[in-house]
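S.,

Sequence below, as promised.
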Amino acid sequence: MKRISILGSTGSIGVNALDVVRRLQDRFQIIGLAAGKNVELLRQQALEFRPKIVSVADSRGAIDLRSELESRGIRVVCGEEGSVEVATHPDTGIVLSAMVGAKGFLPTLKAISSGKDVALANKETLVVAGPIISREVARKNTRLLPVDSEHSAIWQCLNGAKKDTVRKLILTASGGPFLERDLSSFHTITVNQALAHPNWRMGRKITIDSATLMNKGLEMIEAHYLFDEPPEKLDVIIHPQSVVHSMVEFIDGSVIAQLGISDMRMPIQFALSYPERWENDLPSIKLTEIRKLEFFEPDLQKFPCLKLAQQALNTGGTMTAVLNAANEVAVESFLAERIPFSGICHIVESTMEKHNPVADPSLEDVLQSDLWARTRARESVVHMQT
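The prediction came back faster than expected:
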């Protein structure tokens, strides 16, 4: 029986993870659930899965839940401290880190520090502080298990291969909803258009990141730390069909790819069941119905966010934290219709240009850089509106 806590239980990954648990009830037990402000969905999840502890974003939400849940033996906590308490609960064996953005960093770090294995869907944790997370994983001898479909695919393709036999890790990108759209019209892109991903159903923030290809840049940074490969051995190619989730090229020229349907429940289940592979009732991919598989280079003029992420990775230090923080502010501003779609990249770029990176940052350096970048990015948003 695997005992799990989920950080971000009401988000897209969390909901899918709970469906995996629902389908395999004899193999999993939910110990803790942490959510944001979707109190009603958290309530429903708690009543169904009966965890020992739940956490919600603020005290008002906690008050709403306590009267109903604490009488059933479910402890209710709130805020960042509450998420940390869920992540470090002594009965938890594995933590699924699926909170959106940098707010998932500290609970994930604390989970590792308390000796938990972490199934990582919160790529920002490694983008913000990859070296710190990697050192803590090594110190505590825990496991960091990839959940993103691309990193799960690479993990499965490597399958114990010797490190010196790997030539390249190849991340595939669908290209999002604007792959065929002319660059001259990007300034007119609406929020609804940007949220209309052609292949995947995801949360709002990650869907916008997919539309700008920033998501793929963040995944490159994540892959750098997950698989300990240098930037020059990481590649991104456009694959509109989203059938091949990623590939590994070996030194003899062989390329191994992982294929599957576009359903996050598959990589979630693999991470949670590892080192075993369990049967499920999800549909199989129908290879005879796939008419074509296309691959081509990304257009960095149309999608400059990918280039910015590559630059941040090459610079290293606190620059990746600044990239992430500025992007979170810019995406939030676009979703609030305060800036145009094309403004996302401009805000990230201008924030990075103003930053003097710390090469080997401490935790305090990372947190200060994150705060600095958010302040600068918000100033850029205001300036863009005037």
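Residues 363-385 form the longest helix (23 residues).

Coffee later?
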